[in-house]
Write a structure and sequence with these properties.
Helix content is 43%, strand content 13%. Helix 5 links the parallel strand 5 and strand 6. It binds nicotinamide-adenine-dinucleotide.
Length: 282
């Protein structure tokens, strides 16, 4: 069943990592997709890949910066021009601070680093909502934001990243209140993912990539579910929040989609480690 049959979905940061997996899953579920990413090379690669598939006519891209209101407006205009309506926007483009603690932050770049993290991770989400208000109100659509485990717990980043993701949880609640009953606003808070998540230019981390290999080795031992999910495995949650059929009761809600971080025990991570043996199922 196409859960998003002919729904027009715009996603930021949709040319890489989690956003790419969500964009692809939206297409598989019947959506018309607009990818808004700063990387025009990645956008072109995505279009080229899909050109020979049945999704060719169902995807369009826009290259711009989520920190600019006019770029957000232009991305919305591209979606409306191509698909004539907008049903859902997904704020997802983000950068990380590579867990730099306060004590190690150079004072001379703190201002710019703070601004860069907050402008991409928080202002980008706010501007997207502002630019999409009229078409979303018209379609009685929805907004979905990518949060993170760092929106709830410490140690998923340094103070800057953690503060941006906590700010996003506040933004979701406030917008869900302000836009009800016309536009639903929800969030997905994934745990660690092996992607190309980058850092801020102000910290010289624009080419540094999240240490995927180390993460994939260490995460399974640190989360109750015992695996590090792939971007594709995280994507279904977005479909649930975007689906008009499955999400009628939900606004202002954030799914902790992080492998069970809130139910780690004090001693062992998983209380059920010996369950299979005890049940004689080994
Ligand atoms: N990777 C993880 O471990 C992890 C965990 C939890 C949450 N997240 C969140 O997931 C989201 C997606 O990140 P990802 O891990 O897929 O990283 P990614 O780098 O693979 O994808 C992010 C995309 O955003 C785009 N982007 C960055 N800055 C932009 C800007 N100013 N304007 C337009 N596009 C911009 C990039 O070009 C890239 O395509 C982010 O919000 C991130 O905070 C990631």
């Amino acid at each position: 069943m196409d859960r998003l049959h002919n729904e027009s979905v715009l996603i930021t940061g949709g040319a890489s990592g989690l956003g790419l997996a969500v964009a692809q899953r939206c297409l598989e579920d019947g959506a018309l997709v607009t990818v808004f990413d700063k990387s025009s090379d990645a956008n072109d690669k995505l279009l080229e890949q899909l050109r020979r598939t049945r999704y060719n006519e169902r995807l369009t891209t826009f290259a711009g910066d989520v920190r600019s209101f006019s770029d957000n407006e232009a991305a919305v205009a591209v979606a409306l021009e191509k698909f004539d309506k907008l049903d859902c926007v997904i704020g997802n483009a983000g950068i990380w601070d590579f867990s730099i603690p306060l004590v190690d932050m150079p004072v001379d770049t703190l201002d710019q680093s703070f601004d860069e993290l907050f402008h991409v991770n928080v202002k980008g989400y706010l501007l997207l909502a502002k630019a999409a208000l009229t078409p979303l109100a018209r379609s009685k659509g929805s907004i979905i934001y990518t949060v993170s485990n760092a929106g709830f717990h410490p140690a998923g980043g340094g103070p800057l990243y953690t503060a941006t993701k906590h700010a996003v949880t506040g933004l979701i609640k406030q917008l869900a209140y302000e836009l009800a009953p016309h536009i639903r606003v929800n969030g997905v808070a994934p745990g660690a993912i092996q992607t190309n998540l980058r850092g801020p230019l102000a910290m010289g981390m624009q080419e540094r990539v999240i240490p995927g290999e180390a993460l994939s080795k260490s995460i399974p031992d640190r989360v109750p579910v015992g695996v590090m999910p792939t971007p594709e495995e995280y994507a279904g949650a977005y479909i649930m929040f975007a689906s008009r059929r499955d999400n009628i009761p939900t606004t202002g809600s954030i799914l902790n989609h992080d492998g069970g971080m809130a139910v780690r025990g004090f001693g062992r991570v998983r209380g059920g480690d010996q369950l299979i043996e005890k049940l004689g199922l080994d």
